[in-house]
Amino acid sequence: MRRCEMLKENKEKFKNMGKIAIYPGSFDPITYGHIDVVERALEIFDKVIVAIAENEEKRPLFSVEERLGMVKAIFTETPNVMVDSFKGLLVDYVAKTNAKVSLRGLRATSDFEYEFHMASMNRSLSPQLDTLFMMTSKDYFFVSSRTIKEVARLGGGVEGLVPDLVVRRLREKFKLPVTKRKHIGWDD
Length: 188
Ligand code: PNS
Prior knowledge:
Elements: H1 5-9, E1 20-25, H2 32-41, E2 47-53, H3 64-74, E3 81-86, H4 90-95, E4 101-106, H5 109-125, E5 130-135, H6 145-153, H7 164-173
Parallel strand pairs: 1-2, 1-4, 2-3, 4-5
The structure holds 4'-phosphopantetheine.
């Protein structure tokens, strides 16, 4: 499906969806940290739209189609999650929905400055849009798409940090053999 097609086609649908949060990001690839934020947001919002940014300048590992495919497969049995992609400004995308909130996960204070600037810029562009931050759960505060890609590229195990589907896609991307190596977590 082309970018924003879903939103254009179904714009009317948003009127009766209740409280909607947009969860924007690169999701290159999606991690359990992201999934944890979505699951917790569903306790607060009626719908969460995972909005995958098409930003070629960031030179993503996975194409937007590949990212859409993975995220849709992961949330296929979660009816209150919609998955879409967008190009251009987030505020323009959000304006096409009834959402008033952009959702972001915060792992550590080091995330804060970047997030604070982005939230402030978005609010300046669109005063109706608020950014809601959720602290990442303790099990995932060290997990980022960037480190997942680096570890996977170098042959390390990322099982338990990203869904199995993502593990497989990373291995395909980096042409690595399938391994049974288990990630060593805090509790191991
Ligand atoms: O997962 P990321 O890469 O930290 O997500 C960043 C993202 C996609 C949310 C941000 O770059 C974004 O909103 N891009 C769309 C362009 C935009 O609206 N820029 C102005 C905000 S400063």
